[in-house]
């Protein structure tokens, strides 16, 4: 089998495995709806009130997308690796031509498709429920590579977590412990001016910051999104490589 055929075969198997988990399917697409309804429709933004949600509603579209790009790959890939370890699946995969990089690539592609659909749903809900105005220009299509690279990056990090955690419960605990600080300290919902001045430079250490900045430039503020996309691409390659190395080697 060629590389493309091996990746396609694992992709199809992983895709059908996802579809069989109806609860996972439901919450993957229901989660974005909850986010938009709670923060966009119930809490709402107060552009002149100060504090949290004091920016126009378009400002927070990047934050909504960041939630699904961050949480879903971390938990899904991490749990999958932990489950494979417990079921000795990697020992069986070692007898096939599928490499660790190909395995992670196939599962990353599944997550890109799933989260891409969830992100599309989230954008539609943002426009319909909150009345946010999303620019309809050719440049807006750059959201697609931002989502794809962000998902790939956090699939790599999820692979690392799944490889070092001792169980699926450990993966969920570790994923949440990493994801929650990243979510609120990456220019998503909390603006830099609400943070201590000495902490603001640390925002550049979060890979999610570059996703949020780039998507916000496309959907709200304008400005340079290419630099953020380039940085995100470099980080995605690095985290994917780290995830590949971390996957248990049994051959």
TrEMBL record:
Topological category with respect to the lipid bilayer: Multi-pass membrane protein
Pfam families registered for this protein in UniProt: ABC2_membrane
TM region(s), chain numbering: 24-43, 63-82, 103-129, 141-164, 171-189, 195-213, 225-247
Occurrences of domain ABC transmembrane type-2 (ranges): 23-250
Protein localization: Membrane
GO molecular function: ABC-type transporter activity
Stored InterPro entries: ABC2_TM (IPR013525), ABC2_TM_bact-type (IPR047817), ABC_2_transport (IPR000412), Nod_factor_ABC_transporter (IPR051784)
CC per GO annotation: ATP-binding cassette (ABC) transporter complex
Keywords: Membrane, Transmembrane, Transmembrane helix
Name under which the protein is recorded: ABC transporter permease
Protein species of origin: Haloferax denitrificans ATCC 35960
